[in-house]
Amino acid sequence: MTTLANQNKYKSTQISTASSVKIIVLLYDGAINFLEQGKIKIKERDFKLKGVYLSKASRIVAELNSALDEKVDKKLVENLQSLYEFVNYQILQANLKNEIVFIDNAINILKTIKESWDKVIELQFTDKQIIAEKRDSTKMITLTV
Which CATH superfamily is domain 12-114 in? Predict the structure, then answer.
């Protein structure tokens, strides 16, 4: 199996076993990666591939936007929708004007939002760890009684 095939298989496994929060983080990673690739293609003046990468990033942002659930927190959803609209506007401007500054704006926003999701994962992990420790300490107490 080729290295690329191995990477694709790993990503596929990673996605199919991931929590919904982890999938969101993977989507942010993907969008940021495609934006970085778009920057490279602008510098290389490869405008065809630039368009491909920026379109992929834009589709991911649109997917993140469509996945928002107003039932959770309407104000938060409205704020995220505004940010996603702005990010997609920046991607559009980068695509039209071939200026990296627009991509940098989009990347900065996505990285900031992604950091919040990373903290959610960290808190979930910490909570699971605390629950496991409590469960283990209860077992230890049960064994000593």
Answer: Flagellar protein FliS (1.20.120.340)
